[in-house]
Amino acid sequence: MQQSQSYRHCSKSWNTRLVLHCIFIFCVACSFTQNLFAETLLETDFNHHHNLCTVKFLTTQVVKADENLAKVPKQGWQDVQLPDNWETRWPDYSGSAWYRIVWEYQCLEGQENRPLALLIDRIIIAGIVYSNNELIWHDKSLVKPLSRSWNMPRYWVLPSTSLNQGRNEILVRVVDIASQNSGLGAVSIGQVEKISNIHEKLMFQRRTLYLVNLLLTFAFGTTSFLIWVFRRQEVAFGWFALNCFFWALFICNALITEPFPFTDSLTHSRLNLIFLVAYAYTLCLFVWRFANVIFVTLEKILFALTLVFTGILLFTPKHYLLFALSSAFLYSTFIFIANCILIQWIAFKKRKFDVSLLAAVFFSFIIIICHDLYLLHLKLYNEMAWTPFAAPITSLAISFILAWRISKNMHHIEKFNRTLKETIETVTFDLEQSLDKKHQLEIENMRLQERLNLAHDLHDGLGGSIVRSMILLEHSEKVEKPQVMSMFKLLRNDLRQVIDSGSSIGAKVPENPILWVAPLRHRFVQLFEEMDIQSTWTLANHWKNIPHPLHCLTLSRVAEEALTNIVKHSQATKVTISLVEDDDQRLILEITDNGQGFIVTTVQQGLHVGLQSMQVRVKRIGGEFEIHSEAGLTVIRATVPHKPRATA
Known about the structure:
Layout lengths: L1 H48 L3 E12 L13 E2 L4 E2 L9 E13 L8 E5 L2 E2 L1 E6 L2 E5 L15 E5 L7 E11 L6 E2 L2 E5 H39 L4 H21 L9 H26 L5 H20 L5 H30 L2 H25 L9 H89 L5 H20 L12 H18 L3 E6 L9 H22 L3 E8 L5 E7 L6 H6 L3 H12 L3 E7 L2 E8 L8
Parallel strand pairs: 13-14
Antiparallel strand pairs: 1-2, 1-4, 3-11, 4-10, 5-9, 5-12, 6-11, 7-8, 7-10, 14-15, 15-17, 16-17
Helix pairs in contact: 1-2, 1-7, 2-3, 2-8, 3-4, 4-5, 4-6, 6-7, 7-8, 8-9, 8-11, 10-11, 11-13
């Protein structure tokens, strides 16, 4: 068993190292192949035309421009070597400078009509170019805000008619401001095919790669942002999206040839370094959150330093801006390299595939930086740098890693879902058993409730009819057969009504209050006349708001029970029945008599069935039931809302 585990561990580690080595070897091979291809092409072109025409640079000089910018100074020229940065010569100088390149052109007889090409790899920041005192090109804007040619290789074809056999002269006026490493880049003159190939190589390195980098960064950043929006717990995706956002803003500096709207070159440089500082900070947070590590103190320090450098870059005066820009760049570079080293230690501690793969990507950055620093140290400016390849490779690699992590998480989710499904099936079976028992108990409770409701209905409906019949028999000395049959029919109808009105489902609301009270009034008026009781019925001609059938049934039962109690116990001579609707859309039934009265608390404590029935019915629909009784005045009032609200 121990041997099997060791084998799996070794196999997994070997596969990880194999993938990482393949990625690295692929990057190196791409760069080497492109360099070899470019050098071979240039060497072939050079050998083909070498014996036809020769170009020789004689002198390269620079001088500050006079107040008349269009006039080339005659004195003060200094010999320089291109590429040139005039800030090492004229610190804090902002303005224009003239560069003069004197070169010699010799062709064999019959080859004088061959055109040549001129290439300037960069002009910092804007400029205007003359060949033999003839204007061949100028930037769109030579005044603030200046155009930006610092990362744009410029290429022109010089026709043979504009060239001299022997001495020729190139004049370039460069316009810049202090702190921007002002000057002129390398200048090349040669056969059109050769210079065109060099120009294409530079355009690919300085424009195409950066554009591809920007597009990939935008695409992956947007995808990561959407993942974070819909799944906030994926914090690494959120930091990666923010990191891509700042990197895209920083990359724009290498692509745009015009400054941002409403900004000058200095403001542009300030913002560009702020984006770089923010990029370094968000990159650290992304790497650490991806590896599930938190450095509380270190993160607070980095955040504070990010704010400090942002403030410095925004508010530093022009005289110290170059130092501030350089400091911010070195700080960002240091943080970047330190993070590349730190992730190696984190990957060693974590020993996870995705973290190890991310560490390999960041280790390749160290190799790329060392390679480009080596080219810079040897001043091999025409060699292909690896830095432009870093960002596309990074975006692809990190996106692959994040996709792999999502796939892994989905696998865990699927496994969890299977386990959850099995658990749910078990719990569902147990719940079905419990629900079945609960259902049986509910059925029993419903039966008991129906029996209780039936008891109340029999007492209030059929019981009231029996009491009325008994009272009529007591007050009649001689009862005829038709009267007895009428009593039995009345009892039969009341029994049917109890059965039919056991629920409000399917019940209809009378068209108006008069029709609602008609059956009740018909039953009790005859009895009141027999007992010499004067009754007054106060009702509206129509409903203001159509009541619920359950309300009509409840008020009918309350009225029937209250009138029955008056007949049985009150010994009253006057009865008033009223049904009104107040401003709050409540139905108010009020029954008043002038009988002997009773003690309300005593009757309630004695569990009077009729009184309890009335109270229960009214409260069941969310209404209020009130009783006031004394000798000579008893008031029963039932108030129900317009909309039904059943209560327990």
